[in-house]
């Protein structure tokens, strides 16, 4: 007999990613305004803020093109190197 596995993670309500990231960014920016932080702490917070801004920035979706054995573009690149 196999016991059913449950996880508290699976029962949590789902939170949309964008609002959660925006809230995190707001908290980080509030932390950066704190004059009590040393240079290393501020650097870490700035890094986190840039990471979250990068996650919030829309990027175009690119698709990989399948290459066949007769792909001339790829063959030209290999011979010109």
Measure the end-to-end span: 61 Å
- Provide mean pLDDT, rounded: 79
- Total helical elements: 4
Query: Percent helix among the residues?
Result: 55-70%
Number of strands: 0
Unreliable stretches covering 5 or more consecutive residues: none
What is the N-to-C succession of helices and strands?
HHHH
- Global Rg: 23 Å
Fraction of residues in β-strands: under 5%
Given helix and strand content, the structural type is mainly alpha
Per the principal axes of the C-alpha atoms, what is the gross shape? flat
Largest sheet: none
Task: Give the helices and strands, then pairings.
Elements: H1 8-11, H2 17-32, H3 39-56, H4 72-80
Helix pairs in contact: 2-3
Features:
single chain, 81 residues, mainly alpha, 58% helix, flat
Please provide a written account of the structure.
- The protein has about 80 residues and is mainly alpha-helical.
- It has a domain at about 15-55.
- It has four helices and no strands.
- It has helices at about 10, 15-30, 40-55, 70-80.
- α2 packs antiparallel against α3.
- The longest helix is centred in the middle third of the chain and has 18 residues, at about 40-55.
- The radius of gyration is 23 Å and the shape is flat.
């Amino acid at each position: 007999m196999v016991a059913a596995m449950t996880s508290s993670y699976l029962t949590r309500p789902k939170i949309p990613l964008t609002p959660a990231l925006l809230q995190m960014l707001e908290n980080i920016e509030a932390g950066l305004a704190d004059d009590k932080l040393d240079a290393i702490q501020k650097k870490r917070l700035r890094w986190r803020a840039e990471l979250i801004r990068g996650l919030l920035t829309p990027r175009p979706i690119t698709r990989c093109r399948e290459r066949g054995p007769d792909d001339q573009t790829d063959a030209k690149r290999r011979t010109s190197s």
